[in-house]
Write a structure and sequence with these properties.
Layout lengths: L1 H10 L8 E9 L2 E9 L2 E6 L3 E3 L5 H6 L3 E3 L14 E4 L3 H10 L20 E4 L1 H5 L10 E5 L6 E3 L12 H25 L7 E5 L9 E3 L7 H6 L6 E5 L3 E4 L6 E4 L7 E4 L11 E3 L8 H7 L2 H21 L8 H10 L6
Parallel strand pairs: 4-16
Antiparallel strand pairs: 1-2, 2-3, 5-11, 6-9, 6-10, 7-8, 8-9, 12-15, 13-14
């Protein structure tokens, strides 16, 4: 996939600069004229008519002076960071049998009746094991996902709280702490959890995973009420069916909520538009939402969908010689539907 993604970008005429990041944005009036990349081989000034901020941290918006927000209201704390890791040598049949024998130890929506005949995909629970573990990680359960190999799992259990994903010293501390927690977690799993006795760590994340940092303050901020109600918007550019999944910034738990109605909600185009910069769009984790709504829009499918919408909108704005906020949304929606985006 990594190779195919690059090949597709090159086929589309994209100039790639890996190992670089934006550290300066030039603004004249209400338009960005260029961004400066710092890279292994020095600095590059990139000029364009339209820019898309897909940095995850709203770096371009922030450096342009456009308003951004961060974290939850009140204390500004963000959802915790996580260092994911993989283990091989896991006996998943033993895990499944333990689940069937001890259903009270697992998430109540686990499909126990179908479990004997379906592949094991995600495991959420081992509540008693975790409660007695003494592992110094501030969460309330074990969570892992199976595959792609038959003895392989991806573990999502580490939790690094109280640090800022836009601060280099905090990021450095977070990666050290995340890797320390991987050691704690893997030893606990091997010694205490059925099916893991012969398992070993096979891979650790290249860098710590970040759920939340800055996001733009757009023409509209998607709310938790919009999400839970499955709200529709006339300027829809993406839809998501992922439930609310707020990892507590300071506590142990996760606040979850399902989406009502058809089980999906709209993301409006206005969430991609910062009001103070005329030629900038946002995509991915840094679109305009509240802290609570971000708990669903931050997921990869939503980020891909808003990225597709922002890129298409940028192309339309360039060809029509008009600011992104003034393009005809119906034209954008038509182009997205032609590209098989789900808007209905």
């Amino acid at each position: 996939y990594k190779l195919v993604a690059v090949e597709m970008l090159k086929e589309a005429g994209v100039k790639l600069f890996v190992h670089s990041f934006v550290d300066q944005v030039k603004v004249e009036g209400t338009e960005i004229t260029s961004v400066t990349l710092t890279s292994k081989s020095g600095k590059y000034e990139i000029k364009a008519k339209v820019f898309v901020d897909a940095t995850g941290d709203a770096d371009i918006a922030y450096l342009s002076g456009s308003p951004t927000s961060k974290g939850r209201d009140g204390d500004g704390l963000t959802q915790p960071m996580t260092m994911k890791f993989r283990m091989r040598g896991v006996d998943l049949e033993q895990v499944k049998q333990y689940m069937l024998d001890h259903p009270d130890e697992f998430y109540h929506k686990t499909p126990f009746a179908q479990l004997p005949s379906i592949p094991l995909t995600g495991v959420q629970g081992f509540y008693t094991h975790w409660k007695m573990s003494g592992v110094p990680i501030n969460r309330d359960q074990v969570l892992f996902f199976t595959g792609p190999e038959s003895d392989e799992v991806l573990i999502n259990c580490t939790r690094v709280q109280g640090l800022d994903g836009t601060d280099v010293e905090d990021l450095t501390e977070a990666e050290e702490e995340g890797r320390r927690q991987v050691l704690f977690m893997s030893e606990f799993l091997k010694n205490k959890v059925p099916g893991f006795a012969k398992a070993s760590v096979s891979a650790v994340g290249t860098q710590i995973g970040i759920r939340e940092t800055r996001r733009i303050v757009g023409e509209y901020s998607l709310t938790i009420e919009d999400v839970v109600a499955g709200r529709r918007f006339p300027d829809v550019i993406a839809r998501s069916g992922y439930p609310v999944d707020i990892h507590d910034p300071s506590g142990k738990g996760v606040v979850a909520a399902d989406i009502e109605g058809e089980g999906a909600y709209d993301i409006p185009y206005r969430c991609l538009i910062p009001p103070s910069i005329d030629n900038l769009l946002a995509a991915g984790r840094c679109i305009s939402t509240t802290h609570e709504a971000l708990a669903t829009t931050r997921l990869t499918p939503s980020c891909m969908a808003t990225g597709q919408a922002a890129g298409t909108a940028a192309a339309i704005a360039f060809h029509d010689k008009t600011p992104p906020r003034l393009i005809h949304v119906a034209k954008l929606q038509e182009q997205l539907r032609l590209a098989n985006a789900v808007l209905d």
